[in-house]
Amino acid sequence: VTAVEVTENSLKRINEIDDKLGAFVSIEADKALEAAREVDKKLQAGETLPDLAGIPMALKDNMCMKGTISTCSSRMMEGFLSPYDATVVERLKANGAVIVGKANMDEFAMGSSTETSAFKLTKNPYDLERVPGGSSGGSAASVAAGEVYYSLGSDTGGSIRQPASLCGLVGFKPTYGRVSRYGLVAFASSLDQIGPFTKDVEDCAIVMNTLAGHDPMDSTSAKVEVPDYTKFLTKDIRGMRIGMPKEYFGEGVPEDMRKCMMEAIDVLKSLGAEIKEISLPLSEYALAVYYILASSEASSNLARFDGIRYGYRAKEFTDAIDIYVKSRTEGFGDEVKRRIMLGTYALSAGYYDAYYKKALRVRTRIINEYKEAFKEVDVIVSPTSPSVAFKFGEKTANPLEMYLSDIYTVPVNIAGVPGVSVPAGFIKGLPAGLQFIGNYFEEGTLLKVAHAFE
Ligand code: GLN
Predict the structure, then answer these.
(1) Is 219 an active-site residue?
(2) Which of 145, 158, 225, 316 lies at a C-alpha separation of 20 to 30 Å from 357?
(3) Active-site positions, per UniProt (predicted)?
């Protein structure tokens, strides 16, 4: 088959099902077909092509691609035309990737169900009455429903791993600094990372080979050498030490989820891994720390949306202050406003020491706790999410309940270590993922365990 044929098939599938599924906010058919034609030309000329050449994929709508619209699923950015390519996009293009469109998400990546999108709901392909998870719900649904072969998401507190778990996919969050954030619209700059959604671990390793590496355009990008991740896929994990934190398998885990996870752990044992019980006592503070830090950083990052420089501007106003107030009132949705208010409060004089500074201190201790744990074990295992896909509206009335969806994923972003969700089984017909957490820049080790397990 030719790249053009594969791309046409992908576009056809999107045409047929996306009205119902709602994974995409925009389609770039012309650009995709043009990229595919380029690949076919090179193929006919006898060139050897990179692994990703000619394969249709989707980007979360918070990543810039030159000449296309990036909205972050917010009215605030409706119609925003990216003047440049994000580094990940540049890398994908250099490898012949065919980008077919931009995927729906929670507004500015704030949420765990994609329900805060200003534009549409994305359905879970396993059950159209349920959420795909979030915030990268469109990216997950597009791969799970076979519209594209892989996609990119961003993960600030779980937004790749949790939707991967709910949609039966592999979702990978690299070490902070491993993949460039240049061209990713910032949510919480000290936590955000880009990573792939794929159907299996091998595809994940291949996409990571393209994404990872130092980028001078991102000052937090790490100068750490990138190995060939496919070399780790040996299936041999005998003698590997896998830590089971007792806090992650304790009372909060529903019985059916625990059963599914324990079966997965038996698989790891049968593969010759050594399961060790460990303790991460600071885990109970992770959600509090995350929601203070993420909201604080978000309130600062989103200050740039003032109705003047770019983005939505209110139609009627009296003076400059009125432009700010009306544009932000009309342009942002409720969840975004909630985060801005929480963050502004935590950062304000008089509260800074009590909230923001304290959260930073606890963050340092959480980092140390992970560093200590990785002296004892090679990887850590946990559920990805406390639940399988839930119904639309089930958690929207109570934001705190929605925040609880992230209980197992946020500590990983706080520490900055890599994490991956791998399909572990089904609970009443709905997929559930197992999370592996690795040491800094040990993406290869994570992929090795995930590959042996899947
Ligand atoms: N659900 C979390 C939040 O709402 C994580 C989001 C994310 O990782 N982008 O902040």
Answers:
(1) no
(2) 158
(3) 60 (charge relay system), 135 (charge relay system), 159 (acyl-ester intermediate)
Each residue of 397-431: pLDDT tens digit? 999 889 988 999 999 999 999 999 999 999 999 99
Note the ipTM here.
0.97
- Distance from residue 178's CA to the centre of ligand 1 (Å): 19
DSSP reduced 3-state for 381: strand
234 in Cβ contact with 364 (< 8 Å): no
Q: Are 386 and 397 in contact (CB under 8 A)?
A: no
- The string of DSSP codes covering 78-120 is TTPBPSS--HHHHHHHHTT-EEEEEE--SGGG--SSSTT-SS-
Query: Closest Cα partner for 130 from 112, 148, 118?
Result: 112
Residues 161-205 have pLDDT tens digits of 999 999 999 999 999 999 999 999 999 999 999 999 999 999 999
CA distances, 327 to each of 17, 118, 119, 132 (Å) = 35, 15, 18, 30
The pLDDT tens digits for 289-339 are 999 999 999 999 999 999 998 899 999 999 999 999 999 999 999 999 999
Output the pLDDT for position 250: 83
* Any atom of ligand 1 within 6 Å of the Cβ of 112: yes
Q: Which of 112, 142, 151, 159 is catalytic?
A: 159
Nearest C-alpha neighbor of 110 from the set 306, 332, 345: 332
Q: Ligand 1, residues 74, 106, 115: which to mutate, most atoms within 8 A of Cβ?
A: 106
Question: CA–CA distance from 87 to each of 36, 63, 91, 187 (Å)?
Answer: 20, 9, 6, 17
201 vs 420: CA distance, rounded Å? 10
| CA count, 13 A, side-chain hemisphere, 350 | 2
Provide the token pair at 60.
Answer: 């979360």
Alpha-carbon span 220 to 205, nearest angstrom: 22
The CA 71 to ligand 1 mean position distance, Å, reads 17
Distances (CA, A) of 30 to 9, 10, 22, 143: 14, 13, 20, 21
* DSSP three-state, residue 383: strand
- Least Cα distance to 178 among 422, 413, 449 occurs for 413
Apex CA 17: angle with CA 12 and CA 19, to 5°?
115
CA dihedral 140, 145, 146, 148 (to 10 degrees): -40
Select which of 135, 139, 154, 283 is catalytic: 135
- Is 110 near ligand 1, meaning CB less than 6 Å away? yes
Bond preceding residue 135 cis, omega within 30 of 0: yes
